[in-house]
Amino acid sequence: MEWTLANNMKLNENKFQVMNFCLNSSKLLQSMPFSIESLQYMATNGQTIDNTEIVKDLGIYISNDCSWTHHINTAASSARKMASWILGAFRDKSALTMMTLFKSLVRLKLEYCCLVWSPTKITEIQTLENVQREFSKSSYWERLKKLKLISLQRRRERYIIIHTWKIMKNMVPNGMSLQFTTNERLGNKIKPPKFPHKAQRSVSSAYESFYTIKAALLWNILPKSVNSAESLGALKSELSRFMDQYPDMPPVTGYAPPNSNSLIDWRNSGGHGVCA
Q1: pTM of the entire predicted model
Q2: How buried is residue 153: exposed, middle or buried, by Cβ count under 10 Å (0-12/13-18/19+)?
Q3: Strand, helix or coil at 123?
């Protein structure tokens, strides 16, 4: 930590954590002496800092296997506890009161920084949707329509699209280096990063969960009226019209949706299941 000494900065090395990202989960390889040494860090005070599997940073749990399962399970557990407290503490169980409390105290726990960790695995999507399902009771898909709610999955995709539009308009940094192209007929599109075909399957799973891939796939299904919107208000209005064309049938326990419910799947199905 030579730079800390050069800047007269003293750090508490007892609070340091080391994480190594490895897609090869072989326990034999990780038990080798050279592997163990590479997974440790020697602090300036002589203390050895061992490798950790999960680190919490700014409220997000990061795992060394490049998955978000731990964070999603933790967020769902926290949201479920808050939902249980609401149902037990308030006598007024009217739809207005319950939905106001849910949106204010529960849903934010399920959506904090979801641009980073938005899941693609059906089981993880179910874990999050089940919290909203348990709170709303009855038939989940019908209750979404009755309460004029959209699924958490659909909200996350909406966030991704809006954030991507902000990147295109230089309102936020393009830290992911998204490459936008303009077509007179199709509007603004994104060139998705190429996937190395010789990569192993574990790399493929991680590739599909990256924001750059999800953002590109979602953005490229949008019509010109949406991807060429000049203002944030116009974007949200056109995006709502576009999303309303497709059913919102998120995967939850006990329900069998026709697909993953992603806008990408509905769009690529050739309009199958489009609402009238």
Answers
A1: 0.72
A2: buried
A3: helix
Query: How distant, in Å, are the alpha carbons of 258, 261, 270, 275 from that of 266?
Result: 9, 7, 7, 11
3-state secondary structure of 50: coil
Taking the C-alpha atoms of residue 216 and residue 183, their distance in angstroms, rounded to an integer, is 15
pLDDT of residue 74: 96
Please give the structure tokens belonging to residue 196: 């190395």
Task: Tell me the three state secondary structure of residue 39.
Answer: coil
H/E element holding 207? helix 201-209
C-alpha–C-alpha distance, residues 155 and 115, integer Å? 11
Residues 227-251 pLDDT 10s? 999 999 999 999 999 999 999 999 8
Which positions ≥6 away from 187 have C-beta within 8 Å? 222, 223, 224, 225, 226, 227, 228
Say which residue the tokens 């796939």 belong to. Answer: 217
Nearest of 69, 64, 189, 185 to residue 125 by alpha carbon: 69
- Is the pLDDT at 176 greater than 50? The verdict is yes
Whole-number Å distance between alpha carbons of 54 and 65 = 9
